[in-house]
Amino acid sequence: MSIKIKKQIVFKIFIIAVLNVVFSGYLLTDLNSSKNDNIIQSIFGSISVECSSNIILVMVKAIPMIVFFSWIVNKYISELKDNFIYIFLRTSNRENCLQKTVIKTFLSIFIYEFFVITTGLIIFIAPRGNREISVDNVCILLVVNTLQMFMIALISNMLVLFKSEVVANLGNIILTTTPLIVVGVLYEERLSFTNFAKWFPLNLGNYTFLNSMKENVTSILAMLIISCGLYFITVHKLKKYELL
After folding, report:
1. What is the spatial distance between Cα 152 and Cα 73, in angstroms, rounded to a whole number?
2. Using CB atoms within 10 A of its CB, is residue 3 exposed (0-12), middle (13-18) or buried (19+)?
């Protein structure tokens, strides 16, 4: 199984990235008075904790992600599942096949986030004239966004491999929208749960974008640990997997 990503897939990734930038632009209520870093956070990042209870904004932000998982991520693992007999009866190393699929998934997510950043810079930052932006912030957003989507992708992969694409698509909708809504509701209705809301699982990126380096590092480490855990769970289940 090749790790090379086809040009058609890259083109699809680009289209979804542009869709994400256009939708994210809708979230900016006052583009002209916003600072470049605020625009970067809105375009490249996610919805702020304060806005997470707005279902319309949540859907606007989640739709491109759901399309990305459906069109790109789920297809990789679905291909692995469809070729189960051909692949696994001819190799004793199932984990190696899964590794290649996971690597393709990670690379696709990285390319997607790179396209989002590049398109956002061209459409929203460059026309403003003032191009002074924080390279550190952009890099942090790229890393955090990639890891956050990678976590969801690993869960989606498990659903496709051991359940079905229909279940995976439903899971993607729940995974991309529920954390945002829960965080927003907790933040507005239960002040005593403010910190919990900000650090809600799968919502780490929403709070740590452009904050202190300590919070960014903590978020990144947490997502790395969760991603490793999800990967090894998948490997364990895959070794016992039988085609019915």
Report:
1. 10
2. exposed
Q: Give the tokens for residue 110.
A: 């990285």
Report d(CA 62, CA 197) in Å as an integer: 18
Cβ distance 194 to 187 under 8 Å? yes
Q: What is the pLDDT along the chain (244 residues), one digit of tens a residue?
A: 557 788 889 999 999 999 888 887 766 654 444 555 566 666 676 677 777 777 887 888 888 889 999 889 888 888 877 776 666 655 556 778 888 889 999 999 999 999 988 888 888 777 766 556 677 778 888 888 899 899 999 999 888 888 888 898 899 899 888 888 888 888 778 777 777 777 776 676 666 555 677 777 888 888 899 999 999 998 888 777 665 4
How far apart CA 68 and CA 137 sit, in angstroms, is 24
Asked if 157 and 73 touch (Cβ cutoff 8 Å), the reply is yes
User: Please, are residues 83 and 3 in contact by the beta-carbon 8 Å criterion?
Assistant: no
Count of alpha carbons within 13 Å of 99, Cβ hemisphere only? 4
Burial 172-187 (b: 16+ CB within 10 A, else e): bbebbbebbbbbbebb
